[in-house]
Design goal:
Helix content is about 15%, strand content about 35%. It is built from one helix and three strands; from the N terminus they run E-E-H-E. A three-stranded antiparallel sheet has the order 2-1-3. Strand 1 and strand 2 form a beta hairpin. It is elongated and about 50 Å long. The two termini are about 25 Å apart.
Length: about 70
């Protein structure tokens, strides 16, 4: 369905609950990450978490996703 401007509605977003570890630190961290088709996907979650933590997407290499579940 389109709105009055003819634009398609935005894609449905999926929110994931993520348990992850950060290299060089102890413990398991938890976060919620929303993925919007066409903009991001499940594989982008480590990079999205890295941006939150350090501001640098390249730090995704420091993130290990331990568990992932969709709401």
């Amino acid at each position: 369905m389109h709105d009055r401007t003819g634009a398609a509605p935005p894609p449905a977003a999926t929110t994931y609950r993520v348990a992850y570890a950060v290299a060089g630190t102890d413990g398991v961290r938890r976060a919620e990450v929303t993925v919007v088709p066409g903009y991001s996907q499940e594989g982008d979650i480590p990079a999205l978490l890295a941006v939150r933590l350090t501001g640098d997407r390249a730090d995704a290499r420091l993130i290990t996703v331990l568990a992932l579940s969709a709401d």
